[in-house]
Amino acid sequence: MVPNDSPADAAATRRAFLRRGAGAVAAGFAAATAGCASALPPLGSAQRFGRIDVPDADPPRYRRWLPAPSAVEGVDAERYAYLFRRPDALDYPAPVRYTTPRKRLLSHLDHFGVGYANYDRLLHTPFGTVLAGEFDAAAVAETLTTSGYAAAGTDGDYDRFARDDVPRRAAVRDGAIVWSSRRVHDHPRIEALIDARAGQVARYHAAAAGVERLMDAVGESRMVEYVPPTDDPPDGRYWEKCEGFRFDGTTAYHVMTFLYPEGHTPPEAELRDRAVDGTVLTREVANSDFRIDGRLVVVEGRIPPGEGTDPADITPPYPPQITWGYEREGDPRAIVLRHEAGAPVPVDALSLRFGVDDPGDLYTLPASRPFPTDSDRLTPGETATVDLRDRPTVGLIDPDDIDRDAADPYAAAEPRPATRMQVSYAPGSSSRPLFAVPLEESS
User: Which of 274, 303, 332 is the last residue of a domain?
Assistant: First the structure.
C-alpha cells in the first residue's frame, strides 16, 4: 500500500482526532465525506529524477511546545497531527500546497491585535495554537479585553483570558500567545502546550521515536506538517508522514517523508511512480530526488522561480482574520452576531449556512441565507441580527441512497431542523467557515 490519503471523517472519533489536528479541519456541520479519494493535488507535468541541492533546514525548535499524547488528560491516541508555519507573507509566486493552509489558519484564528503576517512562528495542534513573535503582552491583553474576552488571572509568566459564547482560552506573555477554541481544536488544552514548553511534561518527540525521526529529517522551515498513521486497517494509513517547504530566494523546495512501521518494506517502484504521476509532491515541482533509508522514504522536489500562485492571484482570496462573538439577548428566536475585532469584511462576501451537529456517516445538504445586514461592510463593533423564528431545515442522506441518475439525486434526503449556524466567507463559488453558533437545544 502506498500513500494516498483519504479525507478526514467529520465525526469526533479517535480516528478523526488522529487525522485532523492540522491536515484536516472540521467545518462544523459541513457535508460529511465518505469513501476514499486522494487529498493531494496532481502534478502539472512529468518530472526528472536526480540529485537536488535542497537548502538545509533549521533544527526543529518548534517541538519544544509539543506534549506527548500521554501527557494530555483525556487523550488516548498515540499520535496527533500538527502544522508549523512561519507566517511572513511572500511577494512572489509560491506552490499551491504552501499557500492553501494559510486560508485555513486565517479562518481559524481570532484577532489579537498583531496580524497574521507579523507572527514569526505559528504552531497549530489539536490542543491549541501557539503564536510567537515580537509583540507586547499588554497590547495583546488590551485587544482581548476590548473584544469580548475577560481577564482570567495569571499562571506563571502568562496572563489568562477567556470567553464562553464559543469557548475560547488565551494565555499571553511578551512574545507568545497560546490560544484554543472549541470550534477549532479537537481537544482544547492550552496548559499541555505551556507545560511542554516549560519542560514540565514529556514531549512528543521524546515519547515517539517515529515522530522524532521525521522531525529530524524535515527540520524546521517555512512550513512543516506532520500527519500520523490511522488505526483502522485495511483502509487506514499505516505509515506516518511529514512534509516541509524550504525557500532559497524565489526558488521553493518541497520535502516529503514517509516512515513505514516495523515489518513493512517501502514499495519503492510504486512510490517512484506516484512521485511522477501526481500524489506525492506539489504539482509545480519540475525536478525530484528520491531515496530510501531503511523504513524512511524521502522525496524532494524543486519548484522553479515564478511557478505557483502569485499573491495577487490567490483565488478565492485569503479570508479576513476576525474575532467573532454572539449573544441571544434573552430571545431564543434571534441571535446577534458581533464583529469584535480584526479586518473589515465586505458583506457580500459573507453568508450563513445551517446544518446539524453530528451527521455521522450521512451527507448533509445545508441550507443557506444571506448575511442579515443592510451595510456594505462589517467593521469592528458592528452587529447583525439573525431571525430564527423560521428555522431552516437541512437534509440528511445516506451516501448509498444518492441516485446520481435521477433528476433529483437527493430526493431520499430526510429533513431535519438545523442545530448549528455557520458564518462563511464566500467571495466566489467556494466557501470557508469563519465562525459557528449552536442553535437552541443543540449540543
Answer: 303
